[in-house]
């Protein structure tokens, strides 16, 4: 990798770790890394995926729980990019050997119906949403033991690994007090509420529009925005059947293969 900048070398390392499903070391262990530089690394790493034929299809929000923000000592959410290869069809089966130590969490997804310009007022942002859906996000840090600093996780695309969308529905009058249930193998694993997402998922969408616009990548028509986890994430184990149920919105589900004998028969993030 001679001739590459430090950010390009780090982006290549993280991209390869994701492709191979292998752990890599946290960048902060070797040298200081600012959050701004970490977002530059994230962009470069995703550019490698786009060069391989993937498409940008949206963004995901992270640290949308006040408790998690306090734990990390931050007062702002983070965001990552979603690509077409990360989308897992609802009810599909995914390969466990593609991930390192995956976890899964229920989320609210927004469908953007028209481009949202940078610094758009709140009414423009909300009116640009044409549908909402229950969703599951698969997160999978490329770092050992899911341990990282703020800059580390930003560089690692906010741990994005995959997502599942339930059926799109008309935008309800309110999203802030909906009950959320995460089931694993038919048993309740987590119970929560959409209020866990910054008090109201609409606030997460507004943050997404603000932060991506500031980065020169405003939200585009057709994109999906994952608003953030509505409960704690749970480990995603081989053979598991996972379903998220959100009051008034419906459900989204995915199955993990016990083992992927035929890679052609399993979805990959």
Rg result: 17 Å
Please, what is the average pLDDT? 92
The helix fraction, in percent, is 10-25%
How many strands, what sense, and barrel or not for the largest sheet? 8 strands, mixed
Quick summary:
This protein is an alpha+beta fold and 269 residues long. It contains 6 helices and 13 strands. Strands 1, 2, 3, 5, 6, 7, 10 and 11 form an 8-stranded mixed β-sheet that branches. A 5-stranded mixed β-sheet has the order 4-13-12-8-9, with no helix packed on it.
Structure commentary:
The protein is of the alpha+beta class and 269 residues long. 24% of the residues lie in helices and 29% in strands. It is built from 6 helices and 13 strands. It has helices at residues 6-20, 35-51, 66-72, 122-127, 150-155, 201-214; strands at 56-62, 78-83, 87-88, 93-94, 103-112, 129-139, 160-165, 179-184, 187-193, 224-229, 234-235, 241-246, 250-256. Strands 1, 2, 3, 5, 6, 7, 10 and 11 form an 8-stranded mixed sheet that branches. Strands 4-13-12-8-9 form a 5-stranded mixed sheet, with no helix packed on it. Strand 12 and strand 13 (250-256) form a beta hairpin. Helix 1 crosses helix 2. The longest helix is centred in the first third of the chain and has 17 residues, at 35-51. The protein starts with 5 loop residues before the first helix and ends in a 13-residue tail after the last strand.
